[in-house]
Amino acid sequence: MTQQGVRWTADQVLALAPDAASRKAGSKLGAAGPWSEAGSSDEGTVWGLCKGSGSKPYQTVIDIADAAGPAYKCSCPSRKFPCKHALGLLLLWAGGEGAVPPGPAPDWAEQWIEGRRQRAQEKRTAGAAGSAPPTGDPEAARRRAERRAVRITAGATELEQRLADLLRGGLAGAEQAGYALWEETAARMVDAQAPGLAGRVRELGSIPSSGPGWPVRLLEECALLHLLDQGWLRRERLPDGLASTVRSRVGLPASADGPAIRDRWLVLAQYDTADARLTTRRIWLHGTDSGRTALLLSYGAVGRAPELALPVGLELEAEVSSYPGSGQLRAALGERFAPPAPSAARPPGVTADQAAALYGEALRDDPWLDSVPVTLDRVIPAPDGDSWQLADAEGDFALPLTASARSRPGLWRLVSLSGGAPVKVFGECGHRGFTPLTAWPEGPGEAVQLC
Predict the structure, then answer these.
(1) For 177-187, what is each residue's pLDDT tens digit?
(2) Using CA atoms, how far apart are residues 66 and 289, in angstroms rounded to an integer?
(3) pTM of the full structure
(4) DSSP code per residue over 81-130
(5) What DSSP element (H or E) covers 377?
(6) Residues 6+ apart with CB under 8 A from 73
(7) Could you report the per-residue pLDDT of 89-131, keeping only the tens digit for each?
(8) How far apart are CA 422 and CA 270, in angstroms?
(9) How far apart are CA 320 and CA 310, in angstroms?
(10) What is d(CA 402, CA 434) in angstroms, rounded to the nearest whole number?
């Protein structure tokens, strides 16, 4: 599919699931038993009827060949996207041609497919004709930006005073005050229209009483927050790139106005983080021609998965535009020229000591950077007392794994993949250690997702 002979792996299919419950339910439907009249076409569509609790089976159809990513349609009442039936059908198709043979689509599937293709053609025609949404009043936008800057400056000034009060009174007072103090301060930063400052203040609130050494961690984070405050208050004196980074860290919106880079982008990793308000999906890409690394961010409301899904190991030909800021890797996905397809490509790697040096160099452009994306070549996962590390196969340097990585099931997948032999590992390298996200065996083999 997407060229009928090329099929996704089960891991790539399950990466599309909106949550763990959907992955579990979809896996149960990945066998032939519940399905009838399943079929596929050379154009990249799959369809089938799935037996449900009612008298009529659910009609499920998927368009995999759309350059914008997989599209789904199912007659079930689920509000999840994709639903468990779409995941199950994709798993059935990924298992081989026998379960989902090629053939003509039934009328109900053909109507949906044709409707999608027609709407896509109309959209392309409208774009070629130069139709664009009307732009707002630039002068009004400038005045709004000035008013917001004044509010952020007031918030940053107030935050500086609160940090000074904290240090004057001693860090022990932070543990006694509890989280309410930090939440109230964060709310003040929200009122100042500085969500980036608010987020960092909330992170401060989680540090006291978080375990041995928390006063040192709190002092470090207070220093970084103070540096960000001062960067904003003195932004006119900063180089343009660093000033853009400060504006981004404070929370000002920016557009991806960098030049569009067309490349064949390999999906290195995809993982979600969630808080009480939002689910954030991070997708790391590697340009196989340009050698660039790009980060795509996609968001979903509480309880809903972000819309963008690019399973690990796929490659797509597309344009990517970068956001402003020194050393910033965030980018926006633009026009796609072909649907995602499995790829045997792998990113080039570095040694463990080179990875640590890369993070140090990146901090010059962005002092608030927690980590950088790095691919390690020929490293071996090895225990280090109560912890784990990735050691160079031909050297004496090693990177410790972060605490979050040590608690994930992916660690044992990495150890099993290695079996004591060198592997290639992509992940995030920072001051807390290395977080492995994807690994490849030394010889031929598919990418193994670790997150």
Answers:
(1) 778 888 999 99
(2) 23
(3) 0.83
(4) SS-HHHHHHHHHHHT-TTTS-B-PPPHHHHHHHHHHHHHHHHHHHHHHTT
(5) strand 371-384
(6) 59, 60, 61, 62, 112
(7) 999 998 876 778 888 999 999 999 888 878 777 766 665 555 4
(8) 23
(9) 14
(10) 6
